[in-house]
Design brief:
The chain is 36% helix and 13% strand. By secondary structure, the protein is an alpha/beta fold. It has a single domain, classed as 3-Layer(aba) Sandwich (Rossmann fold), CATH 3.40.50. Strands 4-3-5-6-7-8 form a six-stranded parallel beta sheet, sandwiched between helices. Helix 7 links the parallel strand 7 and strand 8. Helix 3 packs antiparallel against helix 5. The N and C termini lie close together (12 Å).
Length: 233
Amino acid sequence: MAMIADNCPGRGGVARDGSVRRAPGGPVGPDLALVPGWSFDGAVFAAMRDALPCPARVFAPGEDAAAVPAGAIGVGHSLGGLWLLRHAAGRLRGLVLINGFARLTAAVDWPDGVAPRVLARMRARCATEPEAVVAAFRARIGAPEGLPVAEAGRLAAGLAELATWDMRAELARLRVPVLCLAAPDDGLVSVALSRATAALAGGAPDWQAGGHCLPLSAPHWCAARIAAFAARA
């Protein structure tokens, strides 16, 4: 999944230093459907979205998947990628997983996932102390303080999805290009889990240090790779 020195059609280009050059005249080209990870809203994409040369819209997990434009490039952060695989894969012309996975929890045939007991504890505590669960999770992944939190109803639902959804077969069957952006210092998704996920799509991750919130910690790096990917998808 090497980076391509190109951009969304008609949109300037990607400079040699990896930054995105915007084309004069405003955005054109394929839409990007951005889906945030657990506990986050669209603010997690703000800096990355500003750096993207392609039109982008944020979709919340739980939103009607029919609203995702047919032919869009799906860009999911963490749980957002899982949501796209489950609900919108057939509508996409390409898929970008940022800090992503096709299954989060470990299993006999998926040993590099997170221990199921971790999600079980989070789900139990979230019923009575959702704010504390979000704070502990964000501390673990190194997220900046002060970011908005998704609506309370989505917190419990999202934890259930993280604990139970297994989209490995769907990712392996996907017949559109897939780009996996991963961090070697991710506090949730291990290097081995990132590699196993990308391997299902027949590739390997692109790596950038920055923890589990690459859209926040490396927004221009993410934007440049997404733009190059969109040009060839």
